[in-house]
């Protein structure tokens, strides 16, 4: 099938490559000429495991191409995916400006029946707005062209985006006609997974509900971790014991310094906004967001207490990205901690395998070290903020000799506490026994 993917961010670039790999002819569209040039040259503007290599192979094969010419892409396609950004506005609602612009342009170029598929995370009811925008543009041209609007949310994780796009655990298709259902089924033919057919509105809600539920699991554990510290219990042992129950599931029970990234915080706020608009307060989800906002501050308070004051102290930050395996620092807990540390008069040395450049640009006062050892050299305290595998393999006997004070705060419970103490560190995790 001929497919266009409009918007070439994480979701768009990954979707384009995955669909081309499935055997379709794919055109990725973006308004940014520079980005399109880069992509056509086989370079990704962000880091995502395996994606660049696959993209290069698909470009070479002629199965994938990128363009700024949306009208031409529309004319030559049977299915059009919308993967533009829907960032949060001040009130938590999703900004649909880019989406509307893309949809109206499609409407102006429509030349026969097409399926317009929304993969962008959008509030419930957006499918109907997309339909209205398209209809308006087509009517303006004095034409009557049939089309179908489908919601097919994406559940891919950054760092594992390609794997998730090629091997999804489920494919949710919200559609309202047999023709759309048949075409979407054909598009994904060959993917061995569960298909969930719903209305467009249900599909839109499934995406928000899924991310909000995962965020709820994390905030539940993060809040419980605070109680574990006061009751001589270990949150990771508790999580393990809970996770053996298949009704609970073992994933997303890791306590830490809060969830970040481009999805969870934004989607939780958007669902809360939708709830307020509809007069149905989601009190539980409200608390999920509050716990998450507090978590990094709660963690920093432990550092402040141990050091007496942060003023004049050298703090080493290990990890800056919102999770390992990505260069993305959007909504990363590190970005909440850095301004507070600087305002309190601390000096920060930091190291992250992928996130240094972006943080350095935002916070020129943060000293970017060449590796973890250099960041830890002379530090009064080390704060592990992202559980990059290379931090787990550090030579801690060497580290302890280079630090001014052997204080280690593990914001992800990534290291073995007993082992760290055996090196001589005063080691503190999140919600672990003996850290109160
Ligand atoms: C998420 C969803 O997983 C994905 O399905 C959706 O489409 C987009 O949002 P992503 O943002 O890439 O993906 O990250 P994810 O791996 O889900 O982690 C989100 C945040 O939660 C990270 O900051 C991570 O560190 C944190 N997290 C995750 C925890 O603190 N504890 C956990 O147990 C799991």
UniProtKB/TrEMBL annotation:
Listed pathway(s): Nucleotide-sugar biosynthesis; UDP-alpha-D-glucuronate biosynthesis; UDP-alpha-D-glucuronate from UDP-alpha-D-glucose: step 1/1
Matching InterPro entries: 6-PGluconate_DH-like_C_sf, NAD(P)-bd_dom_sf, UDP-Glc/GDP-Man, UDP-Glc/GDP-Man_DH_C, UDP-Glc/GDP-Man_DH_C_sf, UDP-Glc/GDP-Man_DH_dimer, UDP-Glc/GDP-Man_DH_N, UDPglc_DH_bac
Domain UDP-glucose/GDP-mannose dehydrogenase C-terminal residue range list: 316-417
Superkingdom, taxonomy of origin: Bacteria
A single BP term in Gene Ontology: UDP-glucuronate biosynthetic process
EC number assigned by the record: 1.1.1.22
Protein name: UDP-glucose 6-dehydrogenase
Organism encoding this protein: Tumebacillus algifaecis
